[in-house]
Amino acid sequence: MAVEPVTLTSVKAAPNHGRMLRERLATILPQLVLAPSLFATLIYVFVFCGWTIWISLSNSSLLPDYSISGFHHYVELWSNRRWTIAYTNLFLFTSLYVIGATAIGLLLAILIDQRVRAEALWRTIYLYPLAVSFVVTGTVWRWLLSPSTGVERVVHQLGWASFKFDWLVQREMAIYTVVITGIWQASGFVMALFLAGLRSIDPDLVKAAQIDGASMPRIYRRIILPAIGPIFISVLVVLLQFAIKTFDLVIALTGGGPGIATTVPAIYVYDLMFQRGQMAEGAAAAIMILLALSLVLVPYTIWKNWRERREAARG
Amino acid sequence: MASLTIRNLNKTFGSVAVLKGIDLEVETGEFVVLVGPSGCGKSTLLAMIAGLESVSAGEIRIGERIVNGVAPKDRDIAMVFQSYALYPTMTVRANITFGMESRGVPKQAQAEALARVAALLQIQGLLDRKPSQLSGGQRQRVAMGRALVRDPALFLFDEPLSNLDAKLRVEMRTEIKKLYQRLGQTTIYVTHDQVEAMTLASRIAVMHQGRLQQFAEPRTVYDRPANMFVAGFIGSPPMNFLPAQISASGPAVLVLEESEGQGTRLPLPDDVAQSAGDGRRVLLGIRPENLTRYDHRWADEKPCLGTIKAPVEIVEPTGAETMAVVRIGSREVIARYEPDAAPAIGETVTLAVDMAKACLFDPATEMLI
Ligand SMILES: Nc1ncnc2c1ncn2[C@@H]1O[C@H](COP(=O)(O)OP(=O)(O)OP(=O)(O)O)[C@@H](O)[C@H]1O
Ligand SMILES: [Mg+2]
User: Residues B351, B337: contact at Cβ < 8 Å?
Assistant: First the structure.
């Protein structure tokens, strides 16, 4: 009698033990797999950010120099006319680009949502620009917009000799060519995001609103667009961070010119750090871009977390 | 309030005919239930009445007016959807008043209508919530409120209770019935639940494969189903069918073809036998409650009582009654017993058949004789 319980427990314990090990392995395996990339990201983000901040406070010129010398590079930065032009351009470009791409993308999405014929074809056409890299987009549009090769030349050849479309080479107007090109590239993507949202709307909502006597514009304004509100935020965030980081599009389209008329902060950073050997001031400018990005992304992350928590609380 | 007249209505999607020649006359103040199996075209018919689907052929009249080409908002209807279709970003209050706002009803009148409906449906406490903060039953009420806030010519309901759990469904069914008795509005109500159809309707329209099978009072649809489809669809458990032959030599009887021995003979009311014709082959339709344990005392009360002997194969207690599946020839037939008198499996029982309630169907056309 005394022996029996012992054998019973040992027989039971063996498979139990094995299963526990397997279960534990199953729970830590994802973490194990993710660890290297997480580690790399942490280093990439925090270490390099920290390094850049340090450099911006130092006296580095051509090569890094780690002796701290204070905030005077930031002061210099903001008294530099080229930097203020870059920052003004950024605000102008960002606001027009975001508003334009959102409006056109939304319009396209609404049009396609009316069950047009050959819908897949339209969708593909509008999505194509996104597949083209910024450099190619910039180059092609430079040809199109340049007075000597593009639209103006074609119209001239057609016989309208006084036609003028030379924004690309005009100081005041060149930034708008960047806006147009940017919108061309992004609105298909925005359309895809909005279309997915519109398609997730219960068609009965529209029918109910029709019976309620609402006109189509009113149905969109009061029911459908509010229902896809979260998509507006996503679109806004994606476009904003596209805009703030803009670099290659401008380089390929205008090269920052004519003169410095279309300089943007990212070009400025690149120029100072890698062309002119003013590493500290370049780093200071990079930190300003980081600040601008965090102005967009931090509130977004907080909002997203808040929403998730609220949804979880609601069940 | 208004009547609804539908004449020879057809609907095709591409080459698929979904509705085939529907005729329906709904009188003012009637509660008509459209019932039928899934995919028979009920929602399509309702959507056409609402103006949400175009008419392929035929005519729809609300009152005296032909509405074939009239937009939904100008048809003077209110509709409750199966999914409720509450506007997700609006409060309950805004959901209910949205229609009036769109039609430019003055604020004061809006508030009065809202208060009336909120009191009627007892949703005063929910007015400032969003639909996502409501339970299923509450959403259902709000959806009803949105329809009731107006005084339309026609109420349309598309399976309004099918998303509720069984208990709540029965409760809301009773409430809808009460509401109708109070308001007396002309109503078209779609469901595939035949109990809802029986309890709510002043008349039932049974549909199948895009055709109207029968349009009559619930009692008539139940007692005298127009064809075998209706007989099988309305009633649970469904009506039993047994092949038989009429014999009018002497007192009229029905001879079951597939019963044990030389064929069981069941008495038949003379008028039925005469109208059907001697020697005709038919299908006997008999509901489970008219097929039950034989009791001697009935001999005088029920003039047309026959008996069948059959072995019991399965016994299914449901609480209030017990269903016994017996075998007659090659067919399984369901009989209804009082729970106290339920038979045992394998026992051969004598069943009383109330032939006064029997229906005879033509085997070829499946129509009621
Ligand atoms: N837009 C459409 N295009 C093509 N076929 C359709 C369309 N809408 C409905 N149908 C078809 O019409 C038939 C009837 O559909 P309907 O929705 O009216 O059925 P129902 O009786 O309401 O069924 P349920 O009880 O499942 O709601 C179905 O066979 C369906 O496939
Ligand atoms: Mg339906």
Answer: no
Q: Which helix (H) or strand (E) holds A295?
A: helix A279-314
Whether the per-residue pLDDT at A5 is higher than 60: the answer is no
Report pLDDT digits (tens) over B78-120. 999 989 999 999 999 999 999 999 988 999 999 999 999 998 8
- Model confidence over A93-114: pLDDT tens digits? 999 999 999 999 999 999 888 8
- Decide if B369 is inside a domain: no
State the helix-helix crossing angle for B92-102 and B107-121, rounded to 10 degrees: 140
CA of B43 to the centre of ligand 1 (A): 7
Confidence of residue A4 (pLDDT cuts 50, 70, 90): very low
Domain span including residue B167: 4-233
- What is the gyration radius of the CA atoms in chain B, in angstroms? 25
The tokens describing B58, both together, are 């035929």
Let me know whether B225 and B273 are in one domain. Answer: no
* Ligand 1 lined by B43 (C-beta under 6 Å): yes
CB distance from A311 to chain B under 8 Å?
Answer: no
Q: What is the CA radius of gyration of chain A?
A: 28
Q: Long-range contact list for B85-88, CB < 8 A, 24+ apart?
A: B85/A202, B85/A204, B85/A205, B85/A207, B85/A208, B85/B143, B86/B131, B86/B139, B86/B142, B86/B143, B86/B146, B87/A205, B87/A208, B87/A209, B87/A222, B87/A223, B87/A227, B87/B131, B88/A205, B88/A227, B88/B130, B88/B131, B88/B132
Is residue A292 included in any domain, yes or no? yes
Instruction: Tell me if A178 is assigned to some domain.
Output: yes
Q: How far apart are CA A212 and CA A206, in angstroms?
A: 10
Same domain, B158 and B258: no
Task: Domain count for chain A, please give it.
Answer: 1
Q: Which of B44, B48, B87 to mutate to test the interface with A (most CBs of A within 10 A)?
A: B87
Q: How far is the CA of B41 from the centre of ligand 1 (A)?
A: 5
Q: Looking at residue B321, what DSSP letter applies?
A: -
- Chain B residues with CB under 8 Å of A202 CB are 83, 85
Which whole-number Å values give the CA distances from B206 to A59, A192, B8, B240, in the listed order? 88, 44, 16, 19
Q: A226 — contact with chain B (CB < 8 Å)?
A: yes
Tell which atom from ligand 1 comes closest to the C-alpha of B11: 12
* ipTM given for this complex: 0.83
d(CA A130, CA A26): 39
Q: Are residues B218 and B342 in the same domain?
A: no
The answer to whether the CB of B40 is under 6 A from ligand 1 is yes
Q: On the CB side of B66, how many CA atoms lie within 13 Å of its CA?
A: 8
- Rounded Cα distance between A182 and A240, Å, is 12
**C-alpha B209 – ligand 1 centre gap (Å):** 10
Domain boundary among B189, B208, B233: B233
Closest by alpha carbon to A85, among A274, A309, A268, A234? A268
Residue A99 has a pLDDT of 94
In chain B, the number of structural domains is 2
In this prediction the pTM is 0.79
- How close B155 gets to chain A, by Cα (Å)? 12
> Coil, strand, or helix at residue B366?
coil
